[in-house]
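Researcher: Quick test of sequence recovery. Tokens follow.
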């Protein structure tokens, strides 16, 4: 028991050092029909803006990260669940003509969030037509069993009332990416919305292989951007010898990393295969 506690503490310390609110920089490469690099550069700024400590600056869109590519964003709602240390925002982005939904990742000083991250136990997903699908209890509960979900739905409804049935773009970083994935699936499956898109940054695994298969069916164009040797996408662990029970990423990963030697080093955005666990991408580390 003591050894298990030490292991969890060590993992917690490691994650805090490596993943404390940092969002990867996306280097622009030519866009493809699978992956839009320009859109990724824009969305990573939205994912970074939510780490603004001053909510007044965030709501008025005057924060340090609120200019340049994402200038002119129309904030609709900021949803804060104080009890569970969670935050999201919803608004309208005229440049991409979409409702943008953003979930905050784990705060460095939020021990409660990290405890949720470490609760790797799976639970059955009670969604129609998804037998055998299992999901991460902590991430699922953070989205479904808090005030975040209702606030997010209300924000989307208000934004679409003003701007029409424009597409919905959902994003987030780290734990926020996990919540964003559940949000996007929820909007499609339970609310019957179409034109829902998902692009996340540094996302951990959120379910088993059956869940990944269903997710691919409902959100076939989802993108997970992973950055170099970031540890978060490798958590919870993937065990190939437990194919049905192990955590398994849904596709599609885009791995941002450096290649080359010496002075001939450049950054590439590698589009991975549609398995969700491409051994030639970040899983090769």
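Model:
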């Amino acid at each position: 028991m003591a050894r298990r506690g030490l292991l969890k503490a060590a993992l917690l310390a490691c994650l805090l050092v490596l993943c404390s609110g940092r969002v990867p920089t996306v280097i622009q490469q030519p866009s493809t029909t699978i992956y839009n690099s320009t859109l990724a550069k824009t969305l990573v700024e939205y994912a970074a803006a939510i780490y603004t400590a001053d909510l007044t600056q965030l709501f008025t869109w005057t924060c340090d990260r609120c200019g340049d590519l994402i200038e002119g964003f129309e904030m609709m709602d900021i949803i804060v669940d104080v009890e569970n240390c969670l935050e999201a925002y919803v608004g309208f982005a005229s440049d991409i003509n979409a409702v943008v939904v953003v979930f905050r990742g784990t705060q460095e000083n939020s021990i409660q969030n990290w405890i949720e991250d470490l609760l790797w136990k799976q639970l059955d997903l009670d969604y129609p037509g998804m037998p055998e699908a299992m999901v991460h209890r902590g991430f699922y509960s953070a989205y479904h069993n808090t005030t975040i979900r209702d606030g997010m739905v209300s924000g989307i409804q208000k934004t679409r009332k003003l701007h029409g049935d424009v597409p919905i773009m959902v994003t987030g970083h780290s734990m926020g990416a996990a919540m964003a994935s559940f949000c996007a699936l929820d909007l499609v499956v339970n609310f019957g919305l179409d034109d829902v898109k998902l692009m996340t940054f540094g996302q951990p695994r959120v379910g088993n292989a059956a869940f990944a298969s269903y997710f691919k069916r409902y959100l076939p164009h989802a993108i997970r951007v992973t950055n170099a040797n970031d540890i978060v996408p490798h958590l919870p662990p993937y065990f190939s010898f437990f194919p049905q029970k192990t955590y398994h990423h849904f596709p599609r990963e885009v791995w941002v990393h450096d290649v080359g030697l010496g002075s001939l080093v450049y950054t590439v955005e590698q589009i991975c295969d549609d398995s969700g666990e491409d051994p030639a991408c970040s899983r090769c580390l």
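The first strand starts at residue 74 and ends at 81.
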